[in-house]
Amino acid sequence: MKTGTRALGIAESYSGTARVPTADHTDSGHSSAVSSPDSDADTDATATPDGHTKSVLCGAVVRADRVVDGLAFETCTVGGDDATDAIASLYRSLGREDVRYVLVSGIAPAWFNLVDIGRLASTLDRPVLSVSFEESEGLEPALSEHFAGDALDHRLEIYRNAPPRRAVEVNAERVFVRAAGCDDDEAARVVRAFTPTGGRPEPLRVARMAARAARQFVGN
């Protein structure tokens, strides 16, 4: 992949109280009352709102040679259903037609505000990769525990229609990728190209740090 190829990484940060570990959940950087096996894990414990209703989303444009080439911010509702639209709005705010790929940390940011990556890929006309970092039994039990009625049905529909998670080996580590808008082989090449060291793609690493800093700055 050419060194100037650009990807947009999307990560979030919000405050909450950890309850149920789920490997498809994003790394929100929230304050946790229940420790996960790795307190700085890329797959957060699921969190319930704790006086905060918004999660800060950061989009980081990063080139394949690790040059950071742009930042943008948006918010989505903790426990809501607006994450997909919020990411689309963030992408449009950048005005960056040179972004080739969009990488999203997990599929269920902001306490099960599920990202419809198929719809997002169609809306943005770009491949969208949801990247998570741990083995998972799936989100359906946790969704059924915390939601009912239309709220549950809506989330289950998005989750069941999501592309399957595929394991990708990168730098002697393993990540799990859902790909919409490209095939699994291309998705694996993208993840490896944007992960020069360790197991975290650089666009997601930068976006996570920026989202945390923005949340702390605004006191969310």
Automatic annotation (TrEMBL):
Biased segments, Low complexity type: 29-50
Superkingdom of origin organism: Archaea
HAMAP family, per database record: UPF0215
Stored Pfam families: Endo_dU
Signal sequence range: none
Sequence segments annotated as region (Disordered): 1-52
Family: Belongs to the UPF0215 family.
InterPro entries membership: Endo_dU
Stated name of the protein: UPF0215 protein AUR66_09255
